[in-house]
Design goal:
The protein is an alpha/beta fold. Helices cover 45% and strands 15% of the residues. It has a single domain, classed as NAD(P)-binding Rossmann-like Domain (Rossmann fold), CATH 3.40.50.720. Strands 3-2-1-4-5-6-7 form a seven-stranded parallel sheet, sandwiched between helices. The longest helix has 29 residues. It starts with 8 loop residues before the first strand and ends in a 10-residue tail after the last strand.
Length: 264
């Protein structure tokens, strides 16, 4: 399959590292002009440089803004009025006993993980609809369907994304705009490495820590390892393509088989 995104402009929120940065690289490699995003100019500049190091000549630039707030989203809209491909990747997670999660923490997770994507989609998808083509994606998690007891507040926000994605897909029915969510499984990012260390122990060698984390905390994983961010990016690049024109309203799994369900 030859995926060609030449002539398309993409915006990926929260994309200076981890899954987001891998998605930027995947879209850029397919020929899209990609705008990455982070909260500080320093992080944005470093991420752009890393993409260009890996792919000299890639059409990539960045916007520094906290899209977890309405003010930050407005900065992005001013700098980038329209896009063809929107990947709502921004998200935060942290383990915490559900009885200790206060109102402010619940609200913060909702603002960053859910409202950021709603704001961006509400703005950009209308232009896609008017032009007759577009791709919107929400990066969810297996935690949306297998709520982790150590991160109930995180899991709930990811569950919400499945509903938001399906709702926007229906609202854009017949317009040439597709909307999907990607159920990403446990992925080896900087944040997950720190999370694993907090559960298994910072002094445990990585190979052993990964095996113990999967065995003790994610035992239903079929691949029995953490996912590489590029494996998530492979799915998002496909969903951004012409070839995915009949895939919409879906929750597509890249979870290593961890969610012990047939659908989704």
């Amino acid at each position: 399959m030859q995926i060609d995104l030449s002539g398309r402009t993409a915006f990926v929120s929260g994309s200076t590292q981890g899954i987001g940065l891998a998605i930027v690289k995947g879209l850029a490699a397919a020929g899209a002009e990609v705008v990455l995003n982070g909260r500080t100019q320093e992080r944005v500049d470093a991420a752009v440089a890393s993409v260009l190091d890996a792919q000299p000549g890639a059409a990539v630039r960045g916007i520094a803004a906290d899209v977890g707030s309405a003010e930050g989203a407005a900065v992005v809209f001013e700098a980038l009025p329209a896009v063809d491909i929107l990947v709502n990747n921004l998200g935060i997670f942290a383990p915490q006993d559900v009885f200790d999660v206060d109102d402010d923490t619940w609200q913060r997770f909702w603002d960053v993980n859910v409202l950021s994507g709603i704001r961006l989609t509400r703005h950009y998808a209308q232009g896609m609809r008017d032009r007759g083509w577009g791709r919107v994606q929400f990066i969810a998690s297996e935690s949306a369907v297998v709520i982790p007891v150590e991160m109930v507040h995180y899991g709930v926000t990811k569950t919400a994304l499945l509903g938001v994605s399906r709702g926007y897909a229906k609202a854009l029915s017949g317009t040439g705009v597709t909307v999907n969510s990607v159920i990403a499984g446990p992925t080896r990012t900087e944040g997950v490495e720190a999370f694993v260390a907090s559960l298994i122990g910072a002094d445990v060698p990585w190979d052993e820590a990964e095996k113990r984390f999967i065995a003790e905390h994610r035992p239903t994983s079929i691949i029995q390892r953490l996912i590489d961010p590029a494996e998530i990016a492979n799915m998002t690049t496909y969903l951004a393509s012409e070839q995915a024109s009949a895939t919409t309203g879906g929750a597509l799994r890249v979870d290593g088989g961890q969610a012990d369900h047939i659908l989704p």
